[in-house]
Amino acid sequence: MEYKSLSEYTKQDYKNIPRHVAIIMDGNGRWANKQGKMRILGHKEGFKAVKKAIKFSIINNLKVLTLYAFSSENWNRPLLEIESLMELFSFSLDSEIKNFKKYNIQFKVIGDITYFNKKLQNSICNAEQKTVNNSGLILNIAANYGGRWDIIQSVKKIIKKVQKGILDANKITENTLSQYLSTSKFLPVDLVIRTGGEKRISNFLLWQIAYSELYFTDVLWPDFNQYIFQDAIKSFASRERRFGGFKKY
Q1: Is 19 assigned to a binding site?
Q2: CA angle 215, 27, 232 (to 5 degrees)
Q3: pLDDT digits over 172-230, tens only?
Q4: Catalytic residue among 33, 60, 61, 74
């Protein structure tokens, strides 16, 4: 299925549209349980929802779409489910490269991928390398990612620079730390969407979303579509972002 093949995906006009949207894709397992199916089938349906989110992002000219695919805490899930997820991730990457090229999508992964098997690591590196020069939507997948891990690895890099005399410890600022995060090359996160009904961040982009707008929906991720995405954008467009300042009357 191609990213622009559905006629109902029409561009919406908003006065204020986010440039970078991050989504916590929650509810695959519960969706499968409600259907009386295996959890992995919920993840497969969730992949279809990913494609819908990508389509919407392209049509509405979003710059970056970050998807929380696998957290550093997800290793606590049953081994069979983890292995099936890894296979699905690898297969999806290999099969989607043609669409990434066709629609000018730059694919990126943030997180510690060294924990993944070699097959998946190779699929990730291949997809990143083949799309590195694409200038359209940046599709950023958070895999084996945790917000605390991201901050810690940033701090470690800064410490090494200080030890080598490259950085002055007394001149380290918030901006310094931001430059060493895994998202340093991306635009700031404007909007975070979480599906599945839970109202928490779950160790996702902890530093980066300090002033992001949050949108929660009870819809389980496999049921996520362009209309729900549109509702989130409408909600964002109606808000006044003050970044710690005061309301203008």
Answers
A1: no
A2: 20
A3: 999 999 999 999 999 999 999 999 999 999 999 999 999 999 999 999 999 999 999 99
A4: 74
Is residue 71 part of an annotated ligand binding site?
Answer: yes
From the options 3.65.10.10, 2.60.40.2250, 3.40.1180.10, 1.10.630.10, give the CATH code of 20-146+188-237: 3.40.1180.10
Closest CA to 65 of 159, 160, 138: 138
13 is catalytic: no
Catalytic pick among 13, 16, 26, 175: 26
Are the beta carbons of 52 and 10 closer than 8 angstroms? no
Please indicate if the annotation marks 207 as binding a ligand: no
Q: Has 26 been annotated as catalytic?
A: yes
Whether the predicted model's global pTM rises above the 0.85 cut: yes
